Each structure stands twice: as structure tokens, then as C-alpha cells.
């Protein structure tokens, strides 16, 4: 009897092993078909999947929660707040994008194509407004143009109402035009003069060449700069709240402040739809813009003489630079001097600086580590899977810090309570928001490394995981570190996510600028603002070298 049972058990084990082998064979077959080349190491896939899921989780959770907000709440908001918020947000985005494009393109053309005096200096100076956080810029213009500001003291009245639609549009334009300026300048440097020469040989005048040849070639670059400006305006919170204007981001923040998180998720859902719609329109427009230049016949474009327009051009360039950088820096230096004399650089200031550096450093280091597998998988193992992972990893970049913080609160408050109320949540929000910056830097560096190096290492028995860390990482380390620097500085300046997620008693420099400026303690806010600006010069140097 025991012999029969043992025989039956052996037979069942054999059948089970046979079934497992068959299943494994089918899984391996479809697994290998998923990749255009050989399959990557499974651990590499697991790490990238977890990272992409974490990046997309706040987005998906906000969408999920908004669907359960209830019909009554949706209808009430659709009838009252949402139309007003849509009007405010879209009108501000369109106006700022329009003027930023006009200013950025004109400056790029004057600096790169014309015989403007000191053009090499202007290439650097006109990019400096990027290091000024718009909420800091808003504070400086409140000091200058506010109801009791410097202009009021000098003139006896305030000729311009900074707390208005045009005040908000002016401030945001001054600190976002460099996106268009930098990208357009880079495109002008790469323009091939042969196209203009061909048009000139056909009898076209300089003005016609500009509008029929040069601008179409620059259109993709201008569009890329415009979409960056539009996304920034959509997601900005600090400057808009400082200037008492209401858009989706500020409305979501104040809705959370009143503990109505479900209404906040409804507003967030509408904002996400709006952002996706803008990105979709941009991708459709971009898809029709395909221009190819042959590097083998490349010729640098000629420098145009400004003649009598040289003085007006200089006045325009200097005016933009003054309004976007000289005025804010002058105001900050004045108040920083007052603050230092009053003892603003005390132990609390350095505690705020240490807190800022701590959470930003965690985000930067984690972003560098997490970006490596995603970049490597996307570059060396292209497939539908890697495309999905890449898109999910970029999802947080198109969302404001308010929505990212909202998603993180829901997730950690319900499922990971032991971390809720910790400063680690701030770093997680920074990673979700700014990991794409590390991805972009890593991708640009990896694109310069030949895949044959990987193939050589794998032929020596290295797995894809070992190839990444032992062969590829040493080669792309400068680009990875540059991406980490970008994440670090962006995290230092991030305001809404920090305001929402910070535990009691944990303040950063960005938070103190917000609080002190809100209480008109400008002498306390100025030193922290200057610290943020000085640190931001690090990635600006990298960007200028890149563009």
C-alpha cells in the first residue's frame, strides 16, 4: 500500500514539474518577445517597475479619489468655482506664454544673430532670472510696487497695481522668459546658413527670409520653450498666492487648508485634464514640425548689422534684464543688509538651511540612484514596456507640488501611517516632482556612450545589472551628478509641497521666505532668498554649457 502511494506521489510530482516547465517555457517565450533585443536582468525590471509605480501613484490616487467625490460635490464645483478657475488659469497661462515667447525670441535673435555690443555677456546675464524663484520675485515687486511700496514713497502713489491680473502676468513673464530665450538661442546656433543663402539667391529680402525661412526652422524650439512656460504657469503656486490671484493650484491648496480634501481632488482632476489637454495639443502641433539639417553641409549663419536699431536693441535688452534680475537683486540686497544687521543669520536661519539641505540631498541622491535603471533600460532595451515605464516616471513633472502632496497625503495617511508626519514625505514629493530632471540629464549622457561597450561587457559574462554599475555608470557619472544638482536646487526652491507636507516645527528656507514675506518681515525673508539664488547658480552653469 505504501509503495502504491509513493508511486502515485512520484507521478504527481513529475506531472507538476512537467507543468511548471511548460509554463516557464511559455513565460520565457513571451518575455523574450517583449524585448527587441535580449531580455534585461529581472532585478533591473523590478526596480524600474517599482520606481515608475511610486512616481505615478499620487496621480492615480488623486484621480481615483476624485471619482468617488460624489455627484453633488462635482456639480456644485462645476456650477460655481471651476468656471472661474478655468478662466483665471487659462487666461493667465496664455498671456504669460505669449509675452514670454515674444521677449525670449527677440532677445535670442538680438544676442545670437545681430551685432549687439557685449553679446557674450548678454548670453549669460539674460539667463540669470532663472535662478530667482518667482515667489521671491513676487516679494521684491510687492516691496517696490505695493500699495505702500518704494514707488508710493517716491511718487506719492502706486502707478501700477501689483495685486492684479496684469501684475501677476508681469512677474511670471519676467521669470519665465529665459526658458524660451535659452532654447531658441540654442536652435539659432545650430541653424544652417545654406537655407537662408538659397532663399536670398531666389530674390527674397531679409524680412521675408526671416518670416519664411528662419522662423519656421525655429518653430519647434519656440514651441518647446512655450510649453515649458505654460506648464510652469499652470503649476505655479508661490507667486500667484503672494499676489492674491486665484488659479487651480492656489484653490487646491486653500481647499486642503479647509480640510475639504475631496473637493481638492475634484479640482485636481480638472487641472490634470487641463494639463493633459495642453500636452496633447502640443504633441499634435509638434508632430507636424519636422525639419532636418544636414551636418555635412553645415555653415554658421551670418551676423546681421543692427545699424540705427543698435541703441533701441540695447535699451530693450537692458530693460528686460533690469526688470527681471537687477531690480529683484537690488531689493534683496537692501533688505538682506537690514536683516543681517538685525541678526537674521541666527541659529534658526542655519537650522532652516540645514533642513533644506537635508531633504533636498535625500531627494537628489535618491533621484540619481533611481534614474539610472530607467535610463539604461529605456536606452538599451527599447520596448513597449520601457516606453510605459518612461511615461509613468515623467508623470510627476507635469503636476504642481500641491497635487503631488495631496496624493502623498492620501496614500501615507491610509496605508503607510508610520511614515506620515515625517520629513521623509517631503523628500518623496521632491523625487516625484523632479526625478525627470535626473532622467533627462542621464539620457543625454548615455546617448554619447556606444552600445558596443555594453555588448563587449556582456560577452565577458556581465549581466545587464553589472554592466550598468561597473561599466556605464563611471562613463556617465558627470551627467548623473549634473542631474542630481538640478534636483537638489529645484528641491531647495519647492514651496507648496513643503508647506503641505512639513511636520510641525520643520521649516525650510523656502517656507520661511513665504511666512516672513507674508508677515511683511522682508528683512528676515531677504537673506534666505539670496541663499536660494546663490545656490541656484550651480545648475544654471550646467544649463548654459548644455545650450
TrEMBL record:
Q: Which InterPro entries match?
A: MetI-like, MetI-like_sf
Per UniProt, the keywords (alphabetical) are: Cell inner membrane, Cell membrane, Membrane, Transmembrane, Transmembrane helix, Transport
**Stretches that traverse the bilayer:** 42-64, 84-109, 121-143, 163-182, 217-242, 262-281, 314-337, 349-372, 392-412, 418-435, 467-489, 521-544
Membrane topology field: Multi-pass membrane protein
Highest rank taxon of the organism: Bacteria
**Subcellular location(s) of the protein:** Cell inner membrane; Cell membrane
Q: Which GO terms describe its cellular component?
A: plasma membrane
Coarsely, its chief localization is: membrane
Domain called ABC transmembrane type-1: residue spans:
86-282, 353-543
Record keyword Transcription present:
no
Q: Where is the signal peptide?
A: none
Q: Output the GO biological process annotations, alphabetical, semicolon-separated.
A: transmembrane transport
Member of which family?
Belongs to the binding-protein-dependent transport system permease family.
- Its recorded name reads Iron(III) transport system permease protein
* Organism from which the protein derives: Anaerobranca gottschalkii DSM 13577
